[in-house]
Specification:
Number of domains: 1
Helix content: 40-55%
Number of helices: 6
Largest sheet: 6 strands, antiparallel
Radius of gyration: 16 Å
Shape: globular
């Protein structure tokens, strides 16, 4: 399971070393793409396949929102092999989308990772902490 948070450095070319504690769960192949929030998401290949299949079969082609969401997710997707050093390439377009420069925050969300700019992470975390009670109330319908 992918949990926790780490601060990481990306080089000028966009290579980011995934923290060691996450590597075993990711296996060898991952997919990196845009997140819904201005962050990047990294899925182990098996989790990506589950998500892609679900999107393909459950989002109606006739829905404008579904088509827009598919474009957001799939057009930015990039398959990467996680080498021995645990490095992945974050293309310039994806780094720009997430506002990632040479520093990043990598967050484990059980089945996948998110990669945030430090400022983006701090803002999102602050908002979530301020609105924690409202978030919990909204999610009560899901049995959380």
């Amino acid at each position: 399971m992918l949990i926790g948070k780490c601060h990481c450095i990306a080089d000028e070319e966009g290579w980011l070393t995934i923290p060691y504690k996450f590597r075993a769960e990711l296996a060898d192949d991952v997919v990196v793409t845009r997140g819904i929030d201005p962050c990047l998401v990294v899925y182990p290949a098996a989790e990506w396949q589950k998500l892609a299949t679900k999107m393909e079969h459950q989002l109606p082609l006739t829905s404008k929102s579904a088509r827009a969401f598919n474009r957001l997710v799939f057009s930015g997707a990039r398959a990467e092999a996680l080498g021995e050093e645990g490095r992945i390439l974050l293309p310039q377009a994806l780094r720009e989308y997430a506002g990632i420069g040479n520093q990043a925050v990598v967050v484990g969300l059980f089945s996948h990772l998110e990669i945030w700019s430090p400022a983006g992470w701090d803002g999102m975390r602050s908002d979530s902490e301020k609105n924690g009670a409202a978030l919990a109330e909204e999610l009560a319908a899901f049995g959380i």
